[in-house]
Design a protein that fits this description.
This protein is of the alpha/beta class. The chain folds into 3 domains: 186 residues, Rossmann fold, CATH 3.40.50.880; 187 residues, Rossmann fold; 102 residues, 2-Layer Sandwich (GMP Synthetase, Chain A, domain 3), CATH 3.30.300.10. The protein has 14 helices and 20 strands. The strands form 4 sheets. Strands 2-1-3-4-11-10-9-6-7 form a 9-stranded mixed sheet, with helices on both faces. A 5-stranded parallel sheet has the order 14-13-12-15-16, with helices on both faces. Strands 17, 18, 19 and 20 form a 4-stranded mixed sheet that branches. Helix 10 links the parallel strand 15 and strand 16. Helix 5 crosses helix 6 and helix 5 packs across helix 11. Bound molecules: xanthosine-5'-monophosphate. Xanthosine-5'-monophosphate binds next to loops.
Length: 511
């Protein structure tokens, strides 16, 4: 059986990050909400270790999440983090108190003592704290193994039972030796082997699907994005020509993108690909529509319609393949239920179609893992490291009504901007960068003639998670080169501006 560690979710904001940190060590981590699994099920599942996450509650609040104390006697090593640390102390009979005005937040000096959990961690370092409650008296059998100026029990251990708790957050990078501490827990304490690799994942998934889908026909909608591409490539290895991919080119992609999809999937990987050139249909439906949400809805609906038409032409199809990934499956911090969100690769897929089953081969993977699988399957880096791109495509980057002329102008301006950034070989590449075609015209002068051309906005952002983002301080030379080329090469553009808004309050996209 595959080696696994359980991340028992008590609603903390870092639960997903904890799982990622575990997986960085080549140990498979699975997130489960605290009320969706019992101690018996944990025992039966054979986890190598359990990590109790943080959470916003206080253990004294009867409504806060608690857990069956039998968990501590299963013989499975446990690491409690923040709320998980307090909960473990509570379950084992320790005393928790509110720190009130002396609560800790931010980078705090940490003193550790001798423990396998802290092997390789110097006596003094910095950790990330964010708490009000703290463990005042560790439970019987536990000893204090770390402290800060304000927190007498920053970490505790019952070494005999392999139970550990830390008040700070080892999963965030502000904790200087956080990675080392998690590494120690996984290897020295849980005895993990660390053999979870993307090559193995790809090979075993292909093997499994080959068995499960014998003789079945599968259909996959490609969007040009990495998730559906990797899902399709996996399925293709498993069922070969019994997989058909449908790629709806809505005419809202970036320059050269649709041809690239065709070249890679049909040309390079030899897959059965149906490319539907539907630009005219989409443009006809978008004519006269300026409102962003209406544009999104129309594109979603039209996509579904075309996809259904194509599926019908193919006759009996048994399996629908989707590129759902782990963050789509796990509702972060839910504490209530591991809700399953519907996944929208392009604009959503038909809700009621006549399939025997839906296959989601990437359900267990984080984005960086999906990319690694893509590379092992031979997908090109341009596709694997593609920037995020909205499903409704350039329709939300052409402000106001979408027309062919505006799209073509935007495509060219966007291609120039991307080329200039790539050419500059920046050490810190922005996370996402693109051009927007505003609905403004402005006066300019071109070849001694007055011009009244369009205004292009350039946008580049730096972010880890796209929830917040800062505008990228691009070198002036790069902006100058892009602006010069765009106004020179595009007859109908007379002005280029750079967007210096962060998110929040702005969003990454303009619409
Ligand atoms: P915002 O504009 O909300 O964008 O700050 C955050 C990230 O999401 C992408 N985005 C979308 N992706 N469908 C998508 O699949 C959409 O409708 C959509 N809108 C924005 C955006 O490019 C950025 O990476």
């Amino acid at each position: 059986m595959r080696e696994r560690v359980l991340v028992l979710d008590f609603g903390g904001q870092y639960n997903m990050l904890i799982a990622r940190r575990v997986r960085e060590n080549h140990v498979y981590a699975e997130i489960r909400a605290w009320n969706r699994i019992t101690a018996d099920q944990i025992a039966a599942a054979g986890y190598k270790g359990v990590i109790l996450t943080g959470g916003p509650n206080s253990v004294y609040d009867p409504a806060s999440p608690h857990f069956d104390a039998a968990l501590l006697n299963l013989g499975v090593p446990i690491l409690g983090i923040c709320y998980g640390h307090q909960l473990m102390a509570w379950m084992a009979g320790g005393e928790i108190a509110s720190a009130g005005s002396v609560s800790e937040y931010g980078k705090i000096g940490l003193t550790v003592s001798d423990s396998p959990l802290f092997a390789g961690v110097p006596a003094g370092s910095v950790c990330w704290m964010s708490h009000t409650d703290y463990v005042k008296t560790p439970p019987p059998g536990f000893s204090v193994i770390a402290s800060t100026a304000l927190c007498p029990c920053a970490a505790m251990a019952d070494e005999g039972r392999r139970l550990y708790g830390v008040q700070f957050h080892p999963e965030v990078t502000h904790t200087q030796y956080g990675r080392q501490i998690l590494h120690n827990f996984l290897f020295a304490i849980c005895g993990c082997a660390g053999d979870w690799t993307m090559e193995d994942f790809a090979a075993s998934t292909v093997e499994r699907l080959r068995g499960e889908l014998e003789g079945k026909r599968a259909l996959c909608a490609l969007s040009g994005g990495v998730d559906s591409a990797v899902a399709a490539a996996l399925l293709h290895k498993a069922v070969g020509d019994r997989l058909v991919c449908v790629f709806v080119d809505h005419g809202l992609l970036r320059k050269g993108e649709a041809d690239e999809v065709e070249r890679v999937f049909r040309g390079q990987l030899g897959m059965r690909l149906i490319r539907v050139d539907a630009e005219e249909r989409f443009l006809a439906r978008l004519a006269g529509v300026a409102e962003p949400e209406r544009k999104r809805r129309i594109i979603g609906e039209e996509f579904i319609r075309i996809f259904e038409e194509e599926a019908k032409k193919l006759g009996q199809i048994d399996v629908l393949v989707q590129g759902t990934i782990y963050p789509d499956v796990v509702e972060s911090g839910s504490g209530e239920a591991a809700l399953i969100k519907s996944h929208h690769n392009v604009g959503g897929l038909p809700e009621r179609m006549d399939f025997e089953r839906v296959v989601e081969p990437l359900r267990e993977l984080f984005k960086d893992e999906v990319r690694a699988v893509g590379l092992t399957l031979g997908l090109p880096e341009t596709l694997v490291y593609r920037q995020p791109f909205p499903g409704p495509g350039l329709a939300v980057r052409v402000l106001g009504e979408v027309t062919k002329e505006k799209l073509d102008t935007l495509r060219e301006a966007d291609a120039v901007f991307r080329e200039e950034i790539e050419k500059a070989g920046l050490s810190d590449r922005p996370s996402q960068y693109f051009a927007v075609l505003t609905d403004e015209r402005s006066v300019g002068v071109k070849g001694d003639m007055r011009s009244y051309g369009r205004t292009v906005a350039l946008r580049a952002v730096t972010t880890d998670d796209f929830m917040t983002a800062d505008w990228t301080r691009l070198p002036y030379e790069v902006l100058a080169a892009a602006s010069g080329r765009i106004t020179n090469e595009l007859r109908n553009v007379s002005r280029v501006v750079y967007d210096i808004s962060s998110k929040p309050p702005a969003t990454v996209e303009w619409e």
